[in-house]
Amino acid sequence: MTDTILITGGAGYIGSHAAWACADRGYKLVVLDDLSTGREASVPDGAELVLGDVADEALVARVLKDHKPRAVMHFAGRIVVPESVADPIKYYRQNTCATLGLLAQLVEAGTEAMLFSSTAAVYEPREDGAPLAEDAPKVPLSPYGQSKLMTEAMMRDVGRAHGLSAAILRYFNVAGADPEGRTGQSTPDATHLIKIASQVAVGQRDKMQLFGDDYPTPDGTCVRDYIHVTDLAEAHVLALEHVLANPGQVTMNCGYGRGSSVKEVIRAVERCTNEKLNVEIAPRRPGDAPALVADVSRIHDTLDWTPKHDDLEEMARSAMAWERKLAAERR
Ligand SMILES: NC(=O)c1ccc[n+]([C@@H]2O[C@H](COP(=O)([O-])OP(=O)(O)OC[C@H]3O[C@@H](n4cnc5c(N)ncnc54)[C@H](O)[C@@H]3O)[C@@H](O)[C@H]2O)c1
Ligand SMILES: O=c1ccn([C@@H]2O[C@H](COP(=O)(O)OP(=O)(O)O[C@H]3O[C@H](CO)[C@H](O)[C@H](O)[C@H]3O)[C@@H](O)[C@H]2O)c(=O)[nH]1
Fold first, then answer.
1. Domain final residue, candidates 208, 234, 254
2. Which residues line ligand 2 (CB under 6 A)?
3. Model ipTM?
4. What is the pLDDT of residues 254-275, one digit of tens each?
5. For the whole prediction, is pTM greater than 0.90?
């Protein structure tokens, strides 16, 4: 019998890519999403979309009873770092507390496994940009990162006590869009570098800002480990199959283990169009870490995962194609 997977936030950027990856693999899907930042058209054909709040425990209980998913991939949540600094209650409520309710319902329903979207924002950034292994010190700079770290702790305790298997996936910087153009990053006011630079490259924005060129990094701009969302989605399918076959808990960084500076990203986007982007040097953005690069030993030791899109230009090209598609839809 085909396994059913519940995907919370499956209409969102990363969740919809993971949903398509699961659909391509033949899983039956139920997506629970309130469409607060998600896009209904990004949900794979054939997946059942339940409109609602993941914090609504009665609704979650009903979905679990009706569909009996073998596992849940939990993407739903709030993701804007500066907003979390201004409104921490929202982040602890919608990320941490909502996930506590979800965990309670998963235990009640006897669901086998849960995958959770965590983040590199849980780590204490290193000044030297050295790769961060999963056991590196955790000192989140924002309530967003803290809300994710608290959720990780809850998952471990609940998993241990009640036999809920768990894969905690700490994403580094996710970028790009589905190469088949089925989904992409669709939030109108997204703040992510590759999305913004792609919008400038396709003429949807006049200019962009580069936040800080005086960091203690090789070219003075922040360094990040950018991972193509399609490779990340594939890692989810493999992590799902890993925890279903090997009950227990695993925490894995998701990145390529290579840092790129903001200037390098901008140059990669420029190479896609052979045109200079209009970039303004601006002050540092509060809360930005100088460098965040993943140590990816564990994910490679654990999963048979071979990234296929490890290329900044490819990320930028797919993001640009998606921006053009979104613009055409708006016309
Ligand atoms: N984008 C990144 O670079 C990044 C990096 C690290 C971790 N993450 C994590 O990955 C997950 C997905 O991020 P994303 O970039 O796809 O964001 P997104 O905003 O595109 O997706 C979130 C989805 O969840 C839905 N949602 C939000 N709150 C909900 C609620 N209470 N009930 C039901 N649905 C709800 C939204 O409508 C949306 O479809 C988040 O948990 C985020 O913290 C993202
Ligand atoms: O218009 C822009 C946008 C970004 N940047 C810079 O580009 C780098 C990357 O910024 P992003 O906003 O793309 O990504 P962040 O590293 O801030 O954060 C992302 O990755 C984190 C993990 O590393 C968290 O998970 C978070 O949710 C996710 O948004 C930063 O130095 C930022 O200052 C610019 O210079 N100009």
1. 254
2. 79, 81, 119-121, 171-173, 191-193, 196, 208-211, 222, 224, 262, 285, 288, 292
3. 0.97
4. 999 999 999 999 999 999 999 9
5. yes
